[in-house]
Amino acid sequence: MIQELLKDKKKIGILSILVIVIIAFGILYLKSGFKELKKNDKESIFVDDIENTDKSAVTSNNNMKNNSNSTKNKEVTVPIKDKSIVVEIKGEVKKPDVYTLDENAIVKELIEAAGGLTENADLNNINRAKKLQNHELVYIANKNGINKEGTTKNSELNTSNSQVTSNNIVNINTATIEQLKTLNGVGDSKAKSIIEYREQSGGFKSIEDIKNVNGIGEKMFEKIKEQIEI
């Protein structure tokens, strides 16, 4: 009877030890699994934070690059003020006066600004496509040889020539053929060449430019340079 009890106690003890061992292993297993899970959670959060930070940095860099590129590509527009010239027109126009026009204006535009031509206007010596110069005077002659003051063209030219002779200076940008002929060595042919050149080139920029006129060289320029201006 006692022996049977001892055997039963041994069995119970062995079973108890096995149960304790199993419980111990179970506890260890649960703890290790919980630590691993917690580790994974931390790693996951850490990785997400890095990725979010990297994405924010990349976005910020891209925005900075885009702003920089847009600044470089942006053109600065500076408004350019329109330049103007002041010119006078006399003779056979409806409203002879001094007018302010665009710097690229031509004689035709000046005539239009002056109300147009009268019925007695003579355009034989007028190039309406010629570009105007600042402070230039344009005179539209009368086809009958009479100006608005009642004097003839010849008397007007004689008066003009006397003024040129007394002043001894001729504006080669505005002078008539008769005025140009007062210059030393300049006749009809050279005077016409001077007028043709200034009409084609838009006027003389300096008195030295007159040397570009056909028939006028360095020697003639030396003779007339004290008599001319622009």
TrEMBL record:
The keyword Membrane applies. Gene3D superfamilies: AF1531-like domain. InterPro entries: Competence_ComEA_HhH, Endo/Exo/Phosphatase_dom_1, Hlx-hairpin-Hlx_DNA-bd_motif, RuvA_2-like, Soluble_ligand-bd. Residues 178-197, 208-227 form the Helix-hairpin-helix DNA-binding motif class domain. Pfam families: HHH_3, SLBB. Keywords: Membrane, Transmembrane, Transmembrane helix. The chain crosses the membrane at residues 12-30. This is Competence protein. It comes from Clostridium gelidum.
